[in-house]
Design brief:
Chain A: Residues 103-442 form the Solute-binding protein family domain. Chain A: Keywords: Signal. The complex is a heterodimer of chains A (543) and B (335). Chain A has 543 residues and is of the alpha+beta class. Chain A has helices at 12-30, 79-86, 139-150, 201-207, 209-212, 260-268, 281-290, 318-327, 330-338, 368-377, 391-406, 418-427, 448-452, 464-475, 479-495; strands spanning 50-56, 90-94, 102-106, 109-115, 120-125, 162-171, 174-179, 222-228, 232-237, 251-257, 274-278, 293-297, 303-308, 381-388, 409-416, 432-436, 501-504, 508-512, 515-516, 539-540. In chain B, 79% of the residues lie in helices and 0% in strands. The chains are: A alpha+beta (543), B mainly alpha (335). At the A-B interface, α1, β10, α6 and α12 of A face α3, α7, α8, α9 and α11 of B.
Chain lengths: 543, 335
């Protein structure tokens, strides 16, 4: 795996100018077409070199609160930067380059053990781990960080059912987590939470929180050289990294950029060698045909879902929910808008996620006639549909509006910012929201419970039976039992027409020729949104 | 005593200087303008729906966490109280600390202002440096081939949005020709050549539409002056050559209008830097402002908007002073 881991215009004629220029822009951009680039390296990994990675300013390229795991509030978007600085106790690796066989494996941790049916988790650290300031990364340091992580304001703090004083140190290399109930998903939730990133307590004390978040100290593959928040993070190789021979790169620079198009052009211009999280589908196709970039579309884990608020009209009436299921044809949307590149899911996990099933037994088929009949029975149906603004979500929302209107449903669409979206959920008056559900492991991150548990403010469902299924599935450590419980939960959601699932989308990563690394040029399922690129194993072929 | 007697007439001369009175008047007028801008910004920021604390903490934050952060940031106090506290500190030069990063805002503005200031200066230098000779040449022979060509170029430039132009520049000069970098900024302190090299495309992205606008404006005004003004006819009757009439008479008069347009343009230009800085990944004020808006960092947004207002007011003051330099009637206070 490792070597391959890879002013006004007076005339109509003048008004055509922008259109002509736009076409020219596209034509110029397409002009260098040359087909797909071979992602396979020409030989074994080579040490040395520098790499500049671009990330969208509105997501991964924004780290406005700094990189202290306990005070960073955008942790889910900054997994790359965090991995590069801290390394991580655990990491998600894929056994195969196509992203299959993915599992969470110990990294700075040497091993783990679920005890008492998942009520306790014992984590053993590797021997001789040291932070880049020379202090030991021992169990005390890990416990200190886990306690800080639990009190963090970040949405990336672990959602563990941790008992009071639930972190204990057994010996210098062993930490034990104590839960109030069995929690089998504890380890799988690690790489998406800030508990995974262990900061040097000594450096934190010496620098103070304000300075530490700018120049954090961890035991990861790279050391911070300079950090301009949400603009540029320059890292240099950590010579004391615990993995012999790693990291391959001497220098790694993260740069924030204003979107997919400028990033794509910067790669073509040779100003950067990688881009994380390409969302704009037409650019994806352009990048593939450019003949200059390696495009790695990650296996999707989180499908879109149309959440229906079953607590308020009109979706407290099952007929209205049934009408939405019958009026919705996500396959047509996937084919028509995205040329089928995003597979359609019938449940809360995409094809790249754990416990995924291609179909759910009894899932209501697309049936516009039935939708029209239900709408007529109800004497008409008017629906408010909202979503957060991004390219794919808005395209899908517009398509849904068209499909629903064809079934006689009147649809008003709304684009929200995060804060106004949250207000909608908190008001309880929202009707339907196009969101993503699930995660690589449905019990971790913004998992299935986030959208379907009665206690979640972002759920449109209040169903104790479903709660029980989801809680039990998160608790058990037995994969077969978890699969059975999630299958039941999928069927239960479908039978009650709680929320039709849609295409499962995952962003793509771009790299220039000669750059290789797991998660960048090979597939690793995204834990949350972007894939966790293993930066210590990323390398460049010498020119 | 003798010194006091000698100082008084000097002071009287200074205070009776029309130019200084003009500056004084303009500076005094700037105070209510800046106050108005700061009140308006604060008010608008408070009207935005949603909680800043919610935005900072993310979707999963509990109401208790949101309340605690609001208390910590002082967002639980009434808006007028918060405004007066901000204003009291701002007049002493303390613009507060970023709600998101905890960094002092004055320092943040200083770091980012250098990049945007240099970008704006280069954009103006290019646009004016190119527009004046092109407009003079076009006005020298109206409807001639050069005039028509300059009109075509100007209309094209004016018709294209900044961001399209910027992307086109990158495609041509960075991707295809590889002569300028597509992104990034090299500080002046690191390399003067590298600094200019890194700012050529962003400055062209900002400057080309300005060049087109200034060219059309100046060419139109020059042609009007040359064709309809008595002083031009008099100059020609005296036997002054056409180029001298154009440069020393018509252009001097037309410069007033150009100065006004340039002064008024600055505000629009600052808005355009927000987009240009994103495309070229420049760590300037535009980038800072956009990030602050995205994260609802009201303190930084407020400081940025007030700074933009100060720069715009200062630019207009400079334009007024240039009128005084160009027109002795203003300088000596005649009507």
């Amino acid at each position: 795996m490792r070597p391959r881991a890879a002013k006004r215009v007076p005339s109509t004629r003048a008004s055509l100018i922008p259109a002509v220029l736009s076409l020219l822009l596209v034509a110029t951009a397409c002009g260098s077409g040359g087909g797909a680039v071979d992602a396979r390296p020409s030989g074994p990994p080579q040490r040395g070199g520098e790499l500049t990675v671009l990330a969208d300013a509105s997501f991964g390229g924004g780290w406005p609160t700094g990189l202290d795991p306990a005070t960073n509030t955008t942790g889910g978007a900054n997994i790359s930067q965090m991995f590069a600085v801290y390394g991580g106790l655990f990491q998600l690796r894929a056994r195969n380059d196509d992203g299959s066989g993915a599992e969470v494996v110990p990294h700075q941790a040497e091993s783990y053990e679920l005890l008492d049916g998942g009520r306790n988790v014992r984590i053993t650290l590797r021997e001789g781990l040291r932070f880049s300031d020379g202090t030991p990364m021992d169990a005390e340091a890990v416990a200190f960080n886990l306690r800080r992580a639990m009190s963090s304001p970040c949405t990336c703090r672990p959602a563990w059912p941790l008992a009071d004083n639930g972190v204990s140190v057994e010996d210098p290399r062993t930490v034990v987590l104590h839960f109030t109930r069995p929690y089998g998903a504890a380890i799988n939730s690690m790489p998406t939470s800030n508990a995974n990133w262990i900061a040097s307590p000594t450096a934190l004390r010496q620098l103070g929180e304000e300075a530490f978040k700018i120049t954090p100290v961890g035991a990861g593959p790279f050391v911070v050289e300079s950090n301009k928040l949400s603009s540029e993070l320059v890292l240099k190789r950590n010579p004391d990294y615990f993995e012999p021979g790693l990291p391959y790169l001497d220098k790694l620079t993260f740069k924030s950029i204003g979107g997919d198009q400028p990033a794509y052009q910067a790669l073509l211009a040779g100003q950067a060698q990688a881009y994380e999280g390409l969302n704009t589908t037409p650019l994806l196709e352009q990048a593939r045909s450019s003949g200059r970039l390696v495009v790695t579309a990650q296996p999707p884990t989180s499908p879109y879902v149309v959440q229906l608020n079953t607590e308020a009209a009109p979706f407290n009436d099952k007929r209205a929910r049934d009408a939405i299921y019958a009026a919705t044809d996500f396959r047509a949307i996937s084919q028509g808008l995205f040329r089928g590149q995003y597979p359609v899911s019938q449940s809360f996990t995409g094809a790249g996620g754990l416990f995924h099933r291609d179909t759910v037994e009894g899932y209501p088929p697309h049936d516009p006639a039935r939708a029209r009949q239900l709408v007529a029975e109800m004497g008409g149906l008017t629906v408010e549909l909202g979503t957060l603004g991004n390219y794919v979500a808005q395209q899908v929302m517009t398509a849904l509006q068209t499909q629903w209107q064809q079934a006689g449903i009147k649809v008003n669409v709304h684009k929200y910012e995060l804060s106004t979206l949250v207000q909608q959920f908190n008001s309880g008056k929202w009707q339907s929201m196009l969101q993503t559900a699930g995660a690589w492991d449905p019990a971790s991150g913004v998992g299935v419970a986030f959208r379907f548990n009665s206690a979640s403010p972002f759920s449109g469902v209040s169903d104790p039976a479903l709660d029980e299924l989801l809680n039990s599935a998160a608790a058990t450590a037995d994969p077969a039992q978890r699969q059975a419980l999630y299958d039941q939960a999928g069927k239960h959601i479908s039978a009650n027409a709680y929320a039709p699932f849609g295409l499962a989308f995952a962003p793509a990563n771009l790299a220039t020729e000669g750059v290789h690394g797991p998660g960048l040029t090979t597939k690793i399922p995204p834990m949350l949104v972007n894939s966790g690129i293993l930066w210590d194993e990323v390398w460049r072929e010498r020119q | 005593m003798t010194a006091a007697v000698a100082t008084r007439p000097r002071l009287a001369r200074v205070t009776s200087s029309p130019s200084l009175r003009l500056i004084g008047k303009r500076v005094l007028m700037a105070v209510p303008i800046l106050l108005g801008v700061s009140v308006l910004t604060f008010w608008v920021l408070n009207l935005i729906p949603g909680s800043a604390a919610q935005q900072l903490l993310g979707a999963e934050a509990t109401p208790e966490q949101i309340r605690a952060l609001e208390q910590q940031l002082g967002l639980d106090r009434p808006a007028p109280v918060r405004y007066l506290q901000w204003l009291g500190a701002a007049v002493t030069g303390d613009l507060g600390t970023s709600m998101v990063s905890g960094q002092p805002v004055t320092g943040l503005l200083g770091d980012h202002l250098a990049v945007s200031g240099e970008l704006l200066a280069l954009a103006f230098l290019f646009s004016l440096g190119a527009a004046v000779p092109v407009a003079l040449l076009a006005a020298f022979r109206p409807h001639g081939w050069f005039d028509r060509l300059s009109m075509l170029v100007s209309i094209t430039g004016l018709s294209v949005a900044n961001y399209v132009l910027a992307l086109l520049l990158v495609l041509v000069f960075a991707v295809n020709m590889a002569v300028f970098p597509a992104i990034g900024f090299i500080p002046l302190s690191e390399s003067v050549g590298g600094n200019l090299h890194s700012l050529v495309l962003p400055a062209l992205g900002l400057g080309i539409p300005l060049f087109c606008m200034y060219t059309r404006f100046l060419r139109g005004d020059l042609v009007d002056q040359l064709q309809g003004e008595d002083y031009i006819t008099t100059a020609r009757a005296k036997g002054i050559g056409p180029w001298r009439v154009l440069l020393l008479h018509a252009f001097r008069n037309s410069a007033f209008g150009l100065i006004t347009v340039v002064g008024l343009n600055l505000g629009t230009l600052i808005g355009a830097t927000v987009i240009i800085e994103q495309i070229f990944a420049l760590p300037g004020l535009g980038q800072l402002l956009l990030q602050a808006i995205n994260t609802r960092d009201y303190v930084v947004v407020q400081a940025c908007v007030v700074l933009f207002a100060v720069v715009t007011v200062a630019a207009n003051l400079l334009a007024d002073l240039l009128y005084a330099v160009l027109d002795p009637r203003i300088r000596y206070g005649s009507r």
